[in-house]
Amino acid sequence: MNLFTWFNHHKLKFEILAVILSLIFMVIGGLTSSLSISPIFWGLAFAIGGFAKAVEGVTKTIQEKSLNVEFLMIAASLAAFLTGEYAEGAVLIFIFAVSGVLEEFATAQTEKALTSLLKIAPKTAIKIVNDVEQTVEISKLLVRDVVVVKPGQQIPADGVIIKGGAAIDQSSITGEFNPSEKLMGDQVFAGSIVINAPILVQVTKDPQQSVVQKMIQLIKRAQEEKTRSEKRVSLFEKIYVYVVITLSLFVIFLTPPLGWLTESEAFRRGVIVLVVASPCALVASITPALLSTLSHAAKKGILIKSGRYIELLRHINVVAFDKTGTLTTGKPKVVECVFETKVDELRLLPTMVAAEKLSNHPLAKAISLHFKDLKNIPVELKEIPGRGLEVKTKTDAIQVGNFPFKATAALEEKFIKYGREGKTLVNIIENGVLKGFIALEDSLREDSKVAIEQLKQLSIRPVMLTGDKKETALAIAQKMGIQTIHAESLPETKVTVVQTYTSQGKKVLMIGDGINDAPALATASIGVSMGDGTDVSLETADIVMMNNQLQNIPYLIKLSYATQNIITQNVVFSIAVILVLLISNLFGIVVLRYGVIGHELSTILVILNSLRLLSSKKKPLRI
Ligand code: ADP
Ligand code: MG
Fold it and tell me: Are the C-beta atoms of 56 and 97 separated by less than 8 Å?
């Protein structure tokens, strides 16, 4: 860790210490005001209190090549010092430093909440021990361990493929979106995602590092990505700072020759302009509010990957729900196993189950669990998201899942009957002919219905997007109170549906859990993933609900409104204070002291107002 990162790491502590020291020196300065050494104490208070902000101001000036409020404040207090108004200069810097501490506090809170959120949801990998799958935390993996990575899952650690081959999406590492084919012996990297077939990977590098790295990256991104209104304010800051400087210089240098003010009075008022017109409060109006909201959501078990989505949430008109794993628990149970003949069952069921064991789909997991005593046979397969599995055998093409088929009348009748009952069917198809199916029943998430009701109250339209059959989708949509369904959607159909709504001028929030949802999550204005969704959806999503509760969606939308309210209050208040002080100064009513206090207190009030959002205890949020 170099000195700079070390300093940043302990920034809050340093800033608090500086504020306390600055306060102590101000008190001494005040007590010794009749003595000639008093300015020394005020000077110390000034230097210590202003240090952090000065560093910040200089860094920002160099980085952005333009002046900023930090610069204005330092200039104003220096000017106050030069005119012998020591106390005012020191107090100005002191309160400014306090506002810095408060901002830093919001940042630290967010960091803390996000870190603990990620800690309670450790990522896992499937380790192979004596041919048996074992779920372990990634951080517990060791070099030389062998893991199986199924379609949709993230490769947990850098390693080498020792069995199988698959298309792998390495975009999170290389930025290249086209998946690349990797075969046995090829190296693969932690964080890339396996798309279409299971592979065995032997770990070659300690995964601990990459997990920590990932966490830091996520948190940094959440805090640093600027929202639209933040960008607007920072652009405003850049321009406005020059306006203030010009105005102040005008008052100082041009009013005396024009005969409006005496030179000393011009200087005094010029400094006041510098202080009161500075947009400190305005600049502090947005970021702390967004950070507090990020932190609030994290405490509720919701990871928002950037403040940008907080602003977007209140504009959402359509919420598109995936069905399996999102509206339903994604923990289905096998209820029936139907085959054309007993012979077919004995012949095909073992292949079907062996294939499902290598898939990460919720239906596959349920089937593997139900038939766990069935003897395992080796199979080779490809997974097609939204459809299912294709198994290669020497003579036949076998498909498991939702593929087009021909069927006998008797079997088709049963197929339709189970579908109407809302059951999900996994078919086994041999050379294009339906041979049988497994019917599964998935329970609805308890809070799905309430969540949908709350969305409707917010005038948001819920729709369902599912890869499942129309009959099944309808049965479930009816129970949920969803009127619009898009059934039998392949991953690219889900994208088209989202795009259609978008082209009608709607803002779409899509929420899903599977590899088949990932493209739509990326297309939607906001993509939300269930916490126990596949890695690819967790990666792609903008918001992850670690606690898997759908009621989070209406909650977040209300939170977005509440945040916007606070931001509006802040902006209006800070502009009002600036105007009142500036106009009073115009008439010479303000003395520097009150200018300083009025202006700086407004900054602190604005930040404190934002920190109200931190509290996640107060339930009903105002809209
Ligand atoms: P949803 O969009 O509702 O989450 P999916 O697209 O994941 O549903 O699945 C849709 C259908 O595709 C399922 O009903 C199932 O028939 C089939 N399917 C997809 N993947 C698999 C798999 N691994 N095993 C069996 N069936 C699958
Ligand atoms: Mg799903």
Answer: no
The domain total for the chain is 4
Residue 54 contacts residue 74 (beta carbons within 8 Å): yes
Residue of 194, 196, 326, 363 to test ligand 1 pocket, by largest number of atoms within 8 Å of CB: 363
Residue 213 belongs to a domain: no
Give me the pLDDT at residue 521, please.
93
**Do residues 343 and 428 share a domain?**
yes
- pLDDT digit string, tens, across residues 121-167: 667 899 999 888 899 988 888 999 999 999 988 898 889 999 999 99
Residue 621 DSSP label = P
Identify the domain containing residue 177 by its residue range.
123-208
Asked if residues 433 and 406 have their Cβ atoms less than 8 Å apart, the reply is yes
- Looking at the structure, tell me whether residues 80 and 15 fall in a common domain: yes
Pair 162, 201: CB distance under 8 Å = yes
CA angle 286, 288, 290 (to 5 degrees): 70
Low-confidence ranges of the chain (pLDDT < 50): 620, 622-623
- Rounded to a whole number of angstroms, the distance between the first and last alpha carbons of the chain is 45
Other CB atoms closer than 10 Å to residue 307's CB: what's the count? 26
329 in contact with ligand 1, CB cutoff 6 A: no
Is residue 555, in this structure, part of any structural domain at all?
Answer: no
387 lines ligand 1 (CB under 6 A): yes
Catalytic site includes residue 145: no
pTM of the model: 0.84
Q: Are residues 434 and 452 in the same domain?
A: no
> For atom 20 of ligand 1, which residue has the closest CA?
388
CA distance 519 to 537: 9
Q: What pLDDT sits at residue 465?
A: 95
Does ligand 1 lie within 6 Å of residue 516's CB atom?
yes
Q: What's the CA-to-centroid distance between 488 and ligand 1, angstroms?
A: 10
399 pocket-lining for ligand 1 (C-beta < 6 Å): no
401: CA distance to ligand 1 center in Å?
Answer: 6
Are 324 and 340 found together in one domain?
no
According to DSSP, the β-strands at 380-384 and 146-149 are unpaired
Q: Smallest Cα–Cα separation from 68: which of 287, 281, 278, 286?
A: 278
Distance from Cα 535 to the centre of ligand 2, integer Å: 13
With respect to residue 61, please indicate whether it lies within any of the assigned structural domains: yes
- Atom of ligand 1 at shortest distance to CA of 425? 16
357-370 pLDDT, tens digit per residue, is 999 898 999 999 99
pLDDT given at position 8: 64
Q: Find the 346 Cα to ligand 2 centroid distance in Å.
A: 30
